[in-house]
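Input/output pair, single chain:
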Amino acid sequence: MLSTMDGSMFNQVVVGGGASLANLIIHAILVGAIVATVHRLRMDQGSLPRFLRYTLVIVATGTLLVVGHFGEVVLWAYTYHWVGATPPNTDLIYFAFGNYTTLGYGDVVPVPDWHLLGPLTALNGVMLIGWSTALIFEILRRSGPQAQS
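Output:
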């Protein structure tokens, strides 16, 4: 736990902004890798039937995005631990997932000095999940069977 940083609003924004920026970088690298891979797996190439190639692209994309989002949640969990933002014995992954997905059961709340990290996590999660949704939609639009004719 970081003992030199208090939970002032400035520090909360710096810590939350830093975690958000790190997640944006992670997500940008992941999305770039997915786009490059999908581009290389053009639907009109290869020996597999188009439908099977299309299915593999979508399943691989979804799987990679889920793994990426999980990694981003873990980064938030480590951030909470680093600054001591949660009560003792909190399941940090559970808490981070609740905030990241905006589920927010409310059964675990941050300590008062770090209360802004929850909404900052939610803002980051909504943005990155939206970005993933846009990517999936674009891959479906560009590589689906209808795009082949």
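The radius of gyration is 19 Å. The chain has a mean pLDDT of 89.
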